[in-house]
Write a structure and sequence with these properties.
Length: 692
């Protein structure tokens, strides 16, 4: 919109449009648009008239830049200052931001408001209202005339440039050995700032010198998020929230921004702080390659802080494995085993990395053309897994003792007989369990030789609990794989059975300590500075603090040969195998009930949980879901499944957030394996936008 056309509109409609008096008419105004603060909306459709927007003569419109400065906290707790398009929907803004940061698959991430400890004490259905009250303050930057801080998008360039905002706190943390890869750069006394389109402003106030601006543009390729400081500063660490109960963990999801609305429409103003986080726990094509280094590092950092803050629980052996992998990542970073080692370019020349990627692509293509791994022999009957196991069910008030029986799994059905002969005779089983829709929780302790499997089997009203106890590691791996496939409705003839078994065995091997190998690792660097609180969740500190170094070194012996990206990928895979992984919780109230309950949304199911114990009450799979709808007037959500419908109201967030999680996971499940697929933003909004 031309500026003279804007003045014509002012005279025709007697509108009040706020502009700086000393406006430079020769400036490029292509980045500016009209904002209607009273209705909290952009007038972004140039073909629409003001009458169509409902603008009357007494309306006040703001002619303001669409790209505004915003402070973003990354998953590794560092802050970056960048320009974000405040006029487009949040999903598109995240896509642009991730493109400039070098993070692939931006559909897995989103922005959220920073939370405070008070937000965990009670339910908040909407944080926008609190932002709205704050945005209505007289000194708000909605007027776009900064009173206390300078802005690179101020309309009046003749105003004096105020003091630069304080630098992000986390950048003062202890840097990694590779400064170019691990920290953001400074130019001319400013923290490096990028725009979401990949350009740089070289600073925050005024127009920087031509040379400084070109230096910033030339150094954009050096800006990398593939490495992070070893530890954030104390203030950034203290800003993390540690939920003390399941209810508090569910209240942590109130801060997600609406992907269908623009950032400005959600009462975010320039220089506000938002957090960039992985929102959907369905990660596509995670590879230990240089092209995915930034994404792997940020995902590793988010997983690390979830574990250390006890958002996700793990066993003692798993905690030590996480600590060992974190130590290996830090050692590889300090010794320079970063992207150079991952690319293979430090010793074999610059052409080694491209050749390795070409060889990997050719190998992958060969596997696809040959139809994958070698096919199994001809099967004349459905495969069956059987053996003697100890099992127990759960009575109403007490736990039964373990019994030994002949357990078989075939076609996703678990059958238990008193003996092998009884099964061979065709006697009816004492237990007959359908595994489809069951929750499978492995409970392995390799150090003590205990291998258990917890099954929560669905019934009409609740989940029945059953335990299986295996005799050795091999038997445990087979039965965990069989139960997991059965819970997904697959039989043992599925090609992924052997892969599942191998994954379980490799994870058990990493958890097995090696006391003898630990004696040879005390000469490793960085060991004198190990602080247990940086590697262990608080619930393990008291027990493991005295023997922390020895126990970590015993676990580190299993991962000491992993390169940097492989260690990060292994950390992520171990995190993905935790029972609590990928569960986004919400406090809800089901129709006809007066008490608050908790639902968990994962990438393939919705679960109803007990708020006190966390036990699964009911599980609904997305594969049986017919539709999901929201009554926007009363904020009730209905999800229809083959076995029936559930209706509930969300107490700890806006119902749009739950609607978006369900639609988002459906969208991510529709991605193809084609590496060249394009992001279908229109389909994403159809599945997540709803009607508002």
């Amino acid at each position: 919109m031309r500026i003279m056309h804007l003045y014509y509109l002012c005279m025709e409609y007697s509108l009040e449009i706020r502009l700086i008096q000393s406006t430079n008419f020769k400036k490029d105004w292509s980045d500016h648009a009209l904002w209607w603060p009273t209705r909290n909306k952009w007038l972004s459709r140039p073909k629409h008239t003001l009458d169509q927007y409902g603008v009357h003569a007494d309306a006040a419109l703001h002619f303001t830049p669409m790209h505004k400065p915003l402070r973003i906290q990354l998953p590794d707790l560092r802050y970056i200052d960048c320009k974000i398009d405040f006029s487009i929907d949040t999903f598109s803004a995240v896509v642009q931001l991730c493109k400039s940061l070098g993070i692939r698959h931006p559909e897995e991430l989103s922005l959220c408001y920073p939370l405070e400890p008070s937000h965990l004490k009670q339910n908040y259905q909407n944080l926008k209202e609190a932002k709205k009250i704050k945005a209505s303050h007289p000194a708000d930057t909605n007027t776009f005339i900064a009173a206390t801080r300078g802005s690179s998008n101020s309309l009046d360039r003749s105003l004096p440039c105020p003091a630069t905002p304080p630098p992000p706190r986390s950048l003062s943390a202890t840097p990694v050995a590779s400064q170019q890869n691990g920290t953001l750069r400074r130019y001319g006394g400013h923290i490096y700032s990028t725009q979401s389109d990949g350009s740089s402003d070289g600073g925050y106030c005024g127009t920087p010198p031509r040379a400084a601006s070109m230096d910033a543009l030339d150094s954009l390729a050096e800006l990398s998020l593939a490495d992070s400081p070893l530890e954030p500063d104390s203030q950034s660490r203290e800003s993390l929230l540690t939920p003390k109960s399941l209810m508090e963990r569910a209240r942590m999801n109130v801060g997600w921004l609406d992907s269908s609305l623009s950032i400005m429409e959600q009462y975010v103003r320039e220089w506000d702080t938002l957090q960039l986080r992985f929102k959907f726990y369905s990660f596509f094509d995670l590879t230990p390659r240089a092209q995915d280094a930034s994404r792997l590092n940020q995902l590793y950092q988010q997983a690390r802080w979830q574990i250390l803050n006890q958002e996700v629980h793990c066993t003692e052996e798993e905690m030590l494995l996480f600590a060992a992998l974190q130590l290996q990542i830090e050692l590889q970073t300090l010794t320079g085993g970063g992207l150079e080692a991952a690319d293979g370019s430090n010793s074999s020349g610059a052409a080694a990395a491209p050749e390795d990627e070409i060889d990997a692509a050719l190998s992958e293509l060969q596997v696809q053309l040959e139809g994958g791994p070698p096919a199994r022999p001809d099967i004349t009957h459905v495969p069956e897994l059987a053996g003697y196991l100890k099992y127990r069910g759960r009575q109403r008030f007490t736990l039964r003792a373990y019994k030994r029986g002949w357990v078989s799994c075939r076609d996703g059905v678990l059958r238990i007989h008193s003996s092998r002969d009884a099964a061979a005779k065709g006697d009816p089983p004492s237990y007959h369990v359908e595994l489809r829709g069951a929750e499978v929780t492995p409970d392995a302790h390799p150090a003590s030789g205990r291998y258990g499997i917890k099954l929560e089997v669905p019934s009409e009203d609740t989940m029945h609990e059953m335990w299986l106890k295996c005799e050795n590691e091999d038997q445990y791996a087979d039965w965990v794989a069989a139960c997991r496939l059965g819970s997904r409705g697959r039989s043992l003839a599925d090609a992924s059975f052997s892969t599942e078994v191998s994954t379980v065995k490799s994870l058990l091997a990493l958890q097995r300590p090696q006391p003898g190998a630990a004696l040879n690792q005390h000469s490793l660097p960085h060991l004198d500075h190990l602080q247990p609180e940086n590697y262990l969740a608080p619930r393990f500190l008291k027990k493991l603090k005295s023997k922390f170094t020895q126990r970590v070194l015993e676990s580190h012996a299993n991962v000491k040969d992993l390169p940097l990206l492989e260690a990060k990928l292994q950390y992520i895979k171990t995190w993905q195998n935790l029972p609590d992984y990928g569960q986004t919780l919400f406090v809800v109230r089901f129709m006809g009930h007066r008490k608050d309950e908790i639902i968990s949304i994962a990438n393939n199911r919705i679960m109803r949980l007990d708020p006190n114990t966390g036990d699964h009450i009911k599980t609904w799979r997305f594969s049986t879901m017919k539709a999901w709808n929201v009554n926007w007037e009363i904020k009730h959500m209905m999800v229809q499944f083959e076995e029936g419908s559930i209706i509930f109201s969300v107490q700890s967030a806006d119902c749009k957030v739950v609607h978006e999680f369900i639609g988002g996971y459906i969208f991510l499940s529709m991605r193809s394996k084609d590496a060249n697929q394009t992001l279908d933003e229109e389909l994403f909004h159809k599945l997540t936008g709803g009607w508002t």
